[in-house]
Design a protein that fits this description.
By secondary structure, this protein is α/β, with parallel strands linked by helices. It folds into 2 domains: 3-142 and 305-331, Rossmann fold, CATH 3.40.50.10950; 151-296, Isocitrate/Isopropylmalate dehydrogenase-like (Rossmann fold, 3-Layer(aba) Sandwich). Helix content is 45%, strand content 16%.
Amino acid sequence: MEFIEQLKEKAGQSKQRIVLPEGLEERTLKAANQILEEDFAEIILIGNPAKVKEEAARLGLKSLDKARVLDPLQHEKMEIYTDLLFELRKSKGLSREQAAELVKNPLYLSVLMIKNGDADGEVAGAENATGDVLRPAFQIVKTIPGISVVSGAFIMVLKDKEFGDNGVLVFADCAVHPDPDAAQLADIAIASSMTAQSIAGIEPRIAMLSFSTKGSAKHELVDKVTEATARARELRPDLKIDGELQADAALIAGIGQKKAPGSEIAGKANVLVFPDLQSGNISYKLVQRLAHAEAIGPVLQGMAAPINDLSRGCSVSDIVNLVAITANQAAGK
């Protein structure tokens, strides 16, 4: 069974409630219909119910009648969500009148539903910019307690099953934070362990990557990685984590044994934490193209609730797959 099919099967065991705020967008509607046909999540669409019904009929999407459709301008919890947003943001100068207007915005409404326990996760971005999708998330659900930074991971599925766990690895951060400091890098490692468990379904063995292995080079960039490794171990002594390691020492048993004898990670890593966004983004794209690997993501990690952002050029299958990922994140909380 392919990896994404495994994700869907796992998601179907708990049927998480995933809200899609772009409820009149054609690809989103087609994706929602497919998800409901495959029956691996409950779908909440934000949009005028009559218009959603009209679009479903026009597109021949017969399973959309199983979705819950919420009108952002008129629903029974408008006052509840307005009060919730006002309480959360009044210290930042938000008035209740402003909160009442923001609640009508599907991107704010979706996150408020999650905050209030009425939905489990959100997928958006098919027609909204990343900043617009993430702004309500940062304001309302914020980050996981103890995690200071949001990052983006890719699940890499390699044809060569020698690496990672049967060819599956997690790469981070490849999408969000350009230059994390040591504390932030430690948080990225911890968040990546959660992604490995809840989405990839693997027990994390985390390598903190550098151009040095165990002191083979001296530089402030190496110091950042060793400090991050020590901090991550202090915060989560239950995690299997080691660094600093070069990529070959992290992935290849013989090299790992030679360069880092005694390490329980060297040669066995399945989570690779890169020292900065440049190296992470370049690496995942090289592996994707040169090794013909499947790169699933980016998975937004570190948020207190699963909220994921699409590219505006996404396909229907991209939306379906990201809903499956989001559902697994929600189930693994």
